Amino acid sequence: MEFHFNTNRAEAERWLSTAVKLLTTRDLHGTKSFAIRARESDPRLEATEQIIAVADTLLAGDSRISGHSQQPDWYAILQLAHYTQNLELVATQYRRLALLLNPHRNRFPYADHAFRLVSEAWNVLSNPSKKALYDHELSMFNRFDSAPSGSTQLRKGRVLTMWPSRLLLPPSRLLLPPSQLAPLRHLPLLSRLDRNRSPEQRVSGLHVPTVIIS
């Protein structure tokens, strides 16, 4: 039995060593994969949970709430579902991850960065007013991302084909001054012929200012 235990521990340490090497190159998926192998070989090896926490947090830190936003996904960083209202659960997740990522105990590369991400997520999601603002922004972008394809073209340099009255972006994100948006609200609905034309042709034919996403 002792021989079997020593064999498992040696194998786990080999997997863990590979995971650390991958983490230094920021290969997060590879790091997690080998760390999981190490944990399966020896579940009692505490270091595997620490390095998995680093990889998971950094992966979540790279995600954004939308392809159109630079706002981090704080819920993903704390491994929570979006709009979680249970503050006790938020606190539990924060304490668990903070304990695993505390740089004084976790000596793996990027542990300090992962710890800061968790702390920032806690700072937002534990504060009712900050959380409410964040949830509102998250909801706004979720609505925008779920809009039917073809109704919008939210890419740099593309003409916006969505009526301004339904626009979900703040006016500051448009090259067109807000004062000039009013006439666009009265544009006629597109005819069947218009639908077959490019956005540039539609705008040109209607002789209205072009709205470009910056």
Automatic annotation (TrEMBL):
Database matches in Pfam families: DnaJ
SUPFAM superfamilies cross-referenced by the UniProt entry: Chaperone J-domain
Domain J as annotated: residue spans: 73-138
InterPro entries cross-referenced by the UniProt entry: DnaJ_domain (IPR001623), DnaJ_domain_CS (IPR018253), Imprinting_Balance_Reg (IPR053052), J_dom_sf (IPR036869)
Listed name of the protein: J domain-containing protein
Taxonomic source organism: Prunus yedoensis var. nudiflora
